[in-house]
Amino acid sequence: MNKFSVSTAVAGALLALASQAAVAAPDWGKVPKRDINVFHAGVTPIEWATKKSDHSGSAGMRKGESCAGCHEEKGTLNFNFKRLADKELEPKGAPKTMMFPVSVQAAYDAANLYIRLTFKAPSGGADKGDKDNEVKATVLFADAKVPQADQYGCWQSCHTDARTMPGADDKKTKYTKEGAYELMQWASKGNKVSDGSVTTERKMTGGTTGAKAEASKSGDTYTVTFTRKNPGEGKAVPFGIAVHADNSSGRFHHVSLGYKLGIGADGDVKAAKQ
Predict the structure, then answer these.
(1) Which pLDDT value is given to residue 25?
(2) What would the pLDDT profile of 8-44 be if each residue is shown by its tens digit?
(3) Which residues pair with 113 in a beta bridge?
(4) Per-domain residue ranges for the chain?
């Protein structure tokens, strides 16, 4: 074998090893789990959440308290679910399951951030607006320009005039008044993955995370694993998750409060370094 052939073979082997290292999945058995409860929020957009006459907790929000800091208690959420399910806040009808846990794991290496969601998607929803997808799972990451993102989570993208809100324009999507969210979504039909964003409108394409996803179902349990570009070590990134179960669409998802993902930093969920 001549020098060129030897060099080519060695280079090819090194490239293959590097590629395998770059895409190697974490050993999830060694990555800590953090249960995050997602819930049906009804008609409680940011305008409702920050209005004193609607939401007594708005006073705490103005003092800098986070939604999770107020409502997460002993592994559950202390909401008045009877009120959330009532016609006042859910005129279309509430799902049979108002809250359920999602097990969240996160890991990272030099190139990628990995997020694994494990959950049982409930049936009994009042909305069947997405005929194509039985289940969708979404993760949103807020940038530094989204106001109070570490307090409110994805609520800064939820408004009274967005589609599926009572009397709203069916063509108006989620949006932010300032800043942007990165969006990753997995949809069950065809294992479709969306890499998008939320700014002045929500876009399901054109994102910059390089999002990929793999999913499996065992019995009634879904496991969805996202891979995206590592946003940078030493950061605590505000994030939230949502699950559309039982063919639901729009605001009829179950959504989390806002949390921080620590990537080589402290956070509500700490990504394990690979």
Answers:
(1) 82
(2) 344 444 434 444 444 578 999 999 999 999 999 999 9
(3) 108, 228
(4) 35-273
Which residues are paired to 216 by β-bridges? 223
Residue count of the chain, please give it: 274
Look at residues 212, 222, 65 and name the one whose alpha carbon lies nearest to residue 152: 65
Residues of the chain with pLDDT under 50: 1-22
Phi then psi dihedrals of residue 96, to 5 deg? -65, -35
Distance CA 118, CA 21 (A): 25
pLDDT at 23: 53
- The answer to whether the CB of 184 falls within 8 A of the CB of 227 is no
CA 227 distance to own-chain centroid: 13
**Burial state string for 160-173 with b = 16 or more CB within 10 A and e = fewer than 16:** eebbbbeebeeeeb
The predicted structure's pLDDT at residue 11: 40
**What pLDDT does 157 receive?**
97
Sequence-separated (6 or more) residues with CB below 8 Å from residue 173:
162, 163, 198, 201, 202
Nearest to 36 by CA among 144, 134, 187, 154: 154
DSSP classification of residue 24: P
Class at the top of the CATH hierarchy for domain 35-273: mainly beta
**Predicted pLDDT of residue 149:** 94
The DSSP H or E segment spanning 49 is helix 46-49
Task: Round to whole Å and give the CA distance between 195 and 104.
Answer: 20
Q: Which amino acid is at 128?
A: K
